[in-house]
C-alpha cells in the first residue's frame, strides 16, 4: 500500500495583499499527477485545509473540485482530511453526505455518544487496497479544549489530555485492527519542532501550554502524519513521526523551507520506505537585499533587479524589501515603488528594522511589526501589559484561546 502525507494547504490564504488561487491550483494539479505517478492508495491531509474558518467561495470550490477530480480519476483512492486549528470543523465536514458512496472521509469533530464518552470508533478508519483492509488510520483532528479526556488529576492540562487521547484511541484501535498496522494523524504543536526564528505563521495554539511530547504517540503506531508546523521534519530522531510541512511558503520566513509531501510505503504490514517529494514552486519569493541595509544600498539593489519583458510569462515573484533605518522615513515606500516600477517583481512587504543607537553597528535591530504579523493573543498580551504593567497570566491565555477556538469553529 502506498500512502501520501500532506498538510497545511491553507487554501484561500492572502499573501499580504495578493491572492494565491493560481498557486494552490498549480499545487493541486501537481498533486493529482503525483498520486498517479506514485500509485497512491491513500491520501492523508493533516489539517489546515483552509486558511480561515470561513473561507471564500473560490477556496471551497477549489477544494471540492479537487475532490471531484480525484475520485473520478482514481475511484479506488481513499482520501482522509482532518480539521486543523484554522479550519471550521462544521464547514470541513459539510459536503460529507454527498460523499457517502466514495472513499473520502472529512473529519472535523471529536464526537461523543449519549453517555458523553468520546466516540473513538468514528475516528478509526479502515484503509483499503482494492477491497481488502490492509491497515487502520486514527484520523485525529485538531483537538480543542474539552475534546480530550480528563487526566488523572482531573485538570484541563492540554498536553496531558492529548497524550491520554492518543493512548486511548490507540488501545481501542488495537482491538479493532487485529494485528493490522496503525497509522495516526494529528494537528498539533510537538515539543522540539524546528521553525525559523522569523516564522510567525504558526505560533503556540493554546497559550503556550500546548507542546506535546513525541512520547504521546504509542509505539504501536507505525507512522504519525502531523500538520501545523510548516517546516517539513521528522521529530525526535524518529523518521515515522513527522510533519509534512506546507506545500507553499506561507511567509517570507518560510522561503527556504523544503516544501514537500511525503510518500510512505507499507509492505507486509510494515512501513518500509518514507520518501519526501519536493513540491515545484509556482511563484518565487525574493528578499532584497539579503540582509537589512540602509536605504541607499537597498535602492541600489532594487535597481539591479531584472526588468520586465513583454514576452516573459513567468509569474511575478513576491518581493520583500529589507531596510535598516535610524529614524522613520515617510518617503521610503514611494522611493521603493519608483525603483521597482519596471522590474519583474511585485512588492509584498517592506521589512523595516530600526537600529538602536546611531553609531553602534552592533546594536540590536528592532522589528517594525505590521498589523498582519500580530496574532490575537499578541494584541491581548500587549494591552494587558500596558494596562497592568505585568505579564498576562497563563490561565488567562488558556481561557482566551478557548474562547477564540469557539468563535472560529462557530
TrEMBL record:
Residue ranges of every copy of the Calcineurin-like phosphoesterase domain listed in the record: 1-231
Superkingdom of origin organism: Bacteria
Presence of keyword Hydrolase: yes
PANTHER family: COMPONENT OF ATP-DEPENDENT DSDNA EXONUCLEASE, NUCLEASE SBCCD SUBUNIT D
SUPFAM superfamilies: Metallo-dependent phosphatases
Protein name per the record: Nuclease SbcCD subunit D
Family matches, as NCBIfam families: sbcd (TIGR00619)
GO terms for MF: exonuclease activity
Binding partners and assembly: Heterodimer of SbcC and SbcD.
Role summary: SbcCD cleaves DNA hairpin structures. These structures can inhibit DNA replication and are intermediates in certain DNA recombination reactions. The complex acts as a 3'->5' double strand exonuclease that can open hairpins. It also has a 5' single-strand endonuclease activity.
Alphabetical list of InterPro entries matching this protein: Calcineurin-like_PHP, DNA_Repair-Maintenance_Comp, Metallo-depent_PP-like, Mre11_N, SbcD, SbcD_C
Nuclease SbcCD subunit D C-terminal domain residues: 284-387
Keywords linked to the UniProt accession: DNA recombination, DNA replication, Endonuclease, Exonuclease, Hydrolase, Nuclease
Protein family membership: Belongs to the SbcD family.
Amino acid at each position: 500500500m502506498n500512502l501520501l502525507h500532506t498538510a497545511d494547504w491553507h487554501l484561500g490564504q492572502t499573501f499580504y495583499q495578493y491572492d494565491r488561487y493560481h498557486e494552490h491550483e498549480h499545487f493541486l494539479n501537481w498533486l493529482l499527477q503525483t498520486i498517479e505517478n506514485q500509485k497512491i492508495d491513500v491520501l492523508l491531509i493533516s489539517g489546515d485545509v483552509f486558511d480561515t474558518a470561513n473561507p471564500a467561495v473560490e477556496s471551497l470550490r477549489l477544494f471540492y473540485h479537487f475532490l471531484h477530480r480525484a475520485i473520478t480519476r482514481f475511484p479506488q483512492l481513499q482520501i482522509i482530511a482532518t480539521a486543523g486549528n484554522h479550519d471550521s470543523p462544521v464547514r470541513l465536514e459539510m459536503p460529507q453526505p454527498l460523499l457517502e458512496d466514495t472513499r473520502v472521509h472529512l473529519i472535523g469533530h471529536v464526537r461523543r455518544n449519549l453517555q458523553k464518552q468520546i466516540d473513538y470508533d468514528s475516528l478509526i478508519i479502515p484503509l483499503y487496497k482494492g477491497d481488502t483492509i490492509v491497515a487502520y488510520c486514527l484520523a485525529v483532528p485538531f483537538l480543542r479544549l474539552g475534546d480530550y479526556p480528563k487526566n488523572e488529576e482531573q485538570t484541563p492540562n492540554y498536553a496531558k489530555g492529548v497524550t491520554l487521547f492518543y493512548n486511548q484511541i490507540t488501545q481501542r484501535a488495537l482491538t479493532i485492527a487485529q494485528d493490522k498496522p496503525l497509522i495516526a494523524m494529528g494537528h498539533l504543536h510537538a515539543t522540539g519542532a524546528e521553525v525559523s526564528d522569523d516564522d510567525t505563521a504558526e505560533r503556540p495554539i493554546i497559550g503556550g501550554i500546548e507542546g506535546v511530547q513525541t512520547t504521546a504517540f504509542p509505539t504501536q503506531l507505525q507512522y504519525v502524519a502531523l500538520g501545523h508546523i510548516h517546516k517539513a521534519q521528522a521529530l525526535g530522531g524518529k523518521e515515522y513521526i513527522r510533519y509534512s510541512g506546507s506545500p507553499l511558503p506561507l511567509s517570507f520566513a518560510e522561503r527556504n523551507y523544503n516544501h514537500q509531501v511525503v510518500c510512505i510505503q507499507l509492505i507486509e504490514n510494515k512501513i518500509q520506505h518514507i520518501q519526501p517529494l519536493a513540491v515545484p514552486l509556482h511563484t518565487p519569493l525574493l528578499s532584497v537585499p539579503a540582509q537589512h541595509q540602509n536605504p541607499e544600498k537597498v535602492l541600489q539593489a532594487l535597481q539591479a533587479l531584472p526588468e520586465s519583458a513583454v514576452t516573459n510569462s513567468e509569474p511575478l515573484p513576491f518581493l520583500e524589501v529589507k531596510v535598516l533605518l535610524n529614524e522613520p522615513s515617510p518617503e521610503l515606500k514611494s522611493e521603493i515603488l519608483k525603483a521597482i516600477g519596471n522590474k519583474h517583481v511585485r512588492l509584498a512587504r517592506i521589512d523595516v528594522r530600526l537600529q538602536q543607537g546611531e553609531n553602534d553597528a552592533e546594536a540590536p535591530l528592532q522589528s517594525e511589526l505590521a498589523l498582519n504579523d500580530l496574532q490575537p493573543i499578541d494584541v491581548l498580551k500587549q494591552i494587558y501589559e500596558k494596562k497592568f504593567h505585568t505579564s498576562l497570566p497563563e490561565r488567562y491565555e488558556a481561557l482566551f484561546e478557548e474562547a477564540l477556538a469557539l468563535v472560529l469553529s462557530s
